[in-house]
Amino acid sequence: MTLQADTAHIRLHVLASGSKGNAAIVENVATGEGLLIDCGICKRDFFARCEEAGFDLRHLGAVLVTHEHTDHTKGLGVVYREFARIGMHPTLFTGAAIRDASRDIGELLDQELCDVRTFAADDALSLTGFAVHAFATSHDAAQSFGFRVECDGDVLGYMTDTGVVTPQAHEALDGCRLLALEANHDRVMLAEGPYPYPLKRRIASERGHLSNEQAAAELMSLLHDGLEAVIAMHVSENNNDYELPAVALREALAHEGHGAVVHVAYQRKLVSI
Fold first, then answer.
1. Residues 78-126: pLDDT tens digits?
2. So what CATH class is 10-272?
3. CB 138 within 8 Å of CB 66
4. Hey, where are the domains in the chain?
5. By Cβ atoms counted within 10 A, which residue in 60, 66, 136, 220 is the most buried?
């Protein structure tokens, strides 16, 4: 199903993306309200990049956690303690198995820093003006999710940390104006790189991470007239570089004569689309 947006109602601010830490803000352009997806970066970088993005954290309505790996959760404690200091208590939403497996989320609960509510794959959440559909990804975690986020007819698809694109994930990503899509590694760089073989096998497995080629193939299958921008996510600094995924995605678009703009998310700087 393709939803066309007469106006861009959603903006995505990727604060950090990569194996060392991940965090992104989804903002309602009209109201300034927002959602945080993951928080695996330090307090200083989190607040500095929110300020750089022009996002007022007083309008943060909820936090979504994709899975329990620490590059997506290790900043939760320090950020929530600062939230509490300034009188903010956004509810955290995640899967039940993620809640149970994550030490970082467990510490939030022990310190009573926030409420934690759980969802399952295919659940629909109504959060601070956004309709959020959660879908399962294929990753070596207790649970892992991507999200389809809708606001007044505008649609963002958000998927990282998956070894394959399942039919359910593909369906959830269909018809997006903005697409945040993992392009973690270059297959040759991974194969020839310094990682031990078991780690290489894990990354390339169906419960690992998408390669540049897999991302490009998925992008080609999702093309429609309303797609305006795609951003390569979770780019490895050891098994990729920031140009290779951009080239792969641009070549996929050029093959189909599509004019969507390609962006790349970085580990150490803000990218907003």
1. 999 999 999 999 999 999 999 999 999 999 999 999 999 999 999 999 9
2. alpha beta
3. no
4. 10-272
5. 66
